[in-house]
Amino acid sequence: MVKELDEKAEALPDHVGWRLWQASRAWQAEFAAAMRAAGHGWFTEARAGLLGHITRTGMRQSALIERSAISKQAIQQLLDGLEAEGIVERLPDPQDGRGKLVRYTRKGLDALRDGDRIKMEIERRYVGRIGEEGFTALMGALRAFAAGGAAAMDEDAGPESEVVESK
Amino acid sequence: MVKELDEKAEALPDHVGWRLWQASRAWQAEFAAAMRAAGHGWFTEARAGLLGHITRTGMRQSALIERSAISKQAIQQLLDGLEAEGIVERLPDPQDGRGKLVRYTRKGLDALRDGDRIKMEIERRYVGRIGEEGFTALMGALRAFAAGGAAAMDEDAGPESEVVESK
DNA sequence: AGGGTATAGTCAAGCTACTTGACTATCTAG
DNA sequence: CTAGATAGTCAAGTAGCTTGACTATACCCT
Predict the structure, then answer these.
(1) Taking a C-beta distance cutoff of 8 angstroms, is the pair B19, A143 a contact?
(2) A127 close to B (CB below 8 A)
């Protein structure tokens, strides 16, 4: 696209993939920094990804496994960490002796609330930068990719792929 | 991929950060799959990130350290891997006995060419999905974020960090 | 009831992609 | 010529996954 920086050698990459990655990284860095600033020092990207799947009312560990696209062992390790930090707690499932229920602690719920607030603040800043319209268009485009991408991957990528889609 | 999944509890997240992450992941998965299909089995995301910074004419390892935001040790390890795979080679820098020049091998250049082709194919597919206009708008928005984020970084964080940190 | 199989979760080991810390070799400035 | 900065290496540790092997419980069938 724009290529007027021949300063020295070659320009930094500028294709969709790179830009998406960059924007995603920037968002995450901004969010994580704000969370840390809000006193949630335990916050990491991986944990955030998992927490996004835990409903406020709590849920079975196995349900969590279905929703997030990673292995049950990975989830367990993440939960171990979150439990140690006092963000979630695991209780035996009264309906199923094998199962465990994962629930937010008060501290966890506080963090969620702060997280929601921070998300809105960041979004507001983004809207400020590219305008209400631009923002809506952006979200539309991203959602279109998510939908189409999953379909495309089903077609040719095979079973190993990290399909995010909900199933 | 309609959204008729209120099956049970709460919806999956749908904010900018999540969507950006999803889109970025989808792009990467698509790209990596295509690269593997093209015979570049050594390809990984981390390596891709580094390769994106190596100019086709080769460069000093130290220059690479400046451009990419990770530690020199990490870069070295990645280069060790890429060298073992025969993608790049390291030569002593004739102008500086301490330095080493990192250069693509023929195999590396082949991979780059394939990578460029694949990028264009993916981009074409994206354009097909959201239209030429939509695509241009998307890229504009993403670049605006990058610029804004970078500016924010210049303000209060050092050059090394990827912390966006509003402070 | 008894036996097979599926499901829920755990334990252990290993891999990738980083990190920090400590070290060597070389260059440059005073 | 020596002090210090710079380029790169070596070693060890961490986060966030992976696969494989295992235990405990539930469900289903005859």
Answers:
(1) yes
(2) no
Contact by Cβ (8 Å): B71, B56: no
Q: Does A57 touch chain B if contact means CB atoms closer than 8 Å?
A: yes
List pLDDT tens digits, range A90-141. 999 999 999 999 999 999 999 999 999 999 999 999 999 999 999 999 999 9
> What are the pLDDT digits (tens) for B121-156?
999 999 999 999 999 999 999 988 877 655 444 333
Test the B interface: residue of A5, A16, A136 with most B CBs within 10 Å:
A16
- 8 Å CB contact between B90 and B100: yes
Angle at the Cα of A33 from the Cα atoms of A130 and A88, rounded to 5 degrees: 115
Quickly give A133 CA vs C13 C1' distance in Å. Answer: 51
- Give the CA B1 to C1' C11 distance in Å: 39
